[in-house]
Amino acid sequence: MTLDLPLIWALIIAFAVFAYVVMDGFDLGIGILFVHHEDGPARDTAMNSIAPIWDGNETWLVLGGGALMAAFPLAYAVILSALYAPLTAMLLALIFRGVAFEFRWRDARHRSFWDMAFTGGSLVAAFAQGVVLGALLQGIAVEGRHYAGGWWDWLSPFSLLCGVSLVVGYGALGASWLVMKTEGALQKAARRHATWLGGGTVICIGLVSLATPFLQASYFQRWFHWPGLLFTVPVPLLVAVLTAAFFMSLKRGAERAPFLLLLGLFLLCFAGLGISMFPYIVPETITIWQAAAPASSLAFVLVGAAVLIPVILIYTGYAYWVFRGKVGTEGYHG
User: Fold this and answer.
1) Is the model more confident about 217 or about 132?
2) d(CA 183, CA 125)
3) Which of 1, 168, 273, 309 is at a distance of 20 to 30 A from 114, taking alpha carbons?
4) 190-210 burial code (b ≥16 CB/10 A, e <16)
5) What is the DSSP letter of 147?
């Protein structure tokens, strides 16, 4: 039996991207909401809730980008050429956010500036990621093996909608994380934020889901014709169930359930994305098999991934286990 190496690598990259969205999503959400917390212990507690894990969360972004370059070099070249501007904005925002994270502890005289920088970097990074997703979904102009579009092709109402949607969704994840990790007034404020941002997330999911099938004729075909209906009909039903459970859990004062239910919503959105795009890695122009590196290269790097991914998972699981439970204002000093 011959292994379908391009499909295996597509699944690895999909896993890495989802792991990044889940893990870095909530700490970007913490940053997005950061300046809405009262200056002082509330902000310190919010930052301490992610201080031991935030940089490790971004490992999945590096893994996803590196895997795309190694396994699908054609897609890597086309996507980066088409989305150079938003990807550059995202990377610069992540760098600025990281600098602000460390400097706010060391440069107390300018802490208010670094707090704003932390929020600004988080906001721009989240928005840029959403724009990249929207631009990829709406399609990239390709001729032969090269990007054939212009500098501003990524900018459209749909890509902007996706950018706003991801900001709202990450904010909801961050608020739900604080509900789980904090107590007292901060937890109460986080519960309020989670309620209205959770509602905004559901609205954004609806708007993006309504627009997506009309971006490409093939999307409409996959979503609304047999046998695609077997996969697509359960998705909105499960979204409705998880949404109801999310708001009920907030209302009854649950602490872990809101965060886990939001992760479920993100997983369903990710499944919908896969239904729309498969088997293309660049929608409607390049499939995963057309973009794949030679089989010998895929097999070689797969050996490295088989070692590296379990190590990352073990480290990540251990870090989350060690720093489980509630957090306070003490414990991190840069």
Assistant:
1) 132
2) 28
3) 168
4) bbebbbebbebbbebbeebbe
5) E
| Terminal Cα-to-Cα distance of the chain (whole angstroms) | 52
Residue with tokens 């490409």: 216
Give the CA diameter of the chain.
Answer: 64
Looking at residue 107, the DSSP 8-state letter turns out to be -
Token pair, residue 46, equals 């919010």
| 244 burial level (CB within 10 Å; 0-12, 13-18, 19+) | exposed
Structure-block tokens of residue 3 = 């292994």
- The β-bridge partners of 146 are 143
Residue found under tokens 């904010």: 171
- 122 neighbors 128 (Cβ within 8 angstroms): no
* pLDDT at position 331: 43
Number of H helices, E strands in the chain: 15, 4
Measured distance CA(293)–CA(312) in Å, rounded: 24
Cis peptide before 6 (omega within 30 of 0): no
Mean pLDDT in residue range 103-112: 79
* 150: helix, strand or coil: coil
Helix, strand or coil, per DSSP, at residue 191? helix
CA torsion angle for 96, 132, 290, 273 (degrees, to 10)?
120
Distance CA 25, CA 31 (A): 10
Dig out the tokens for 192 from the structure: 């309020």
- Give the H or E element holding residue 281: strand 280-282
Which of 131, 48, 22 lies closest to 84 in space, CA to CA? 131
Burial class (CB in 10 A: 0-12, 13-18, 19+), 66: middle
SS3 152: coil
Range list of β-strands (E), 6-149: 142-143, 146-147
**And the tokens for 156?**
């459209």
Q: Write out pLDDT tens, residues 17-44.
A: 898 888 888 889 999 998 888 777 888 8
Q: Which CATH class is domain 5-322?
A: mainly alpha
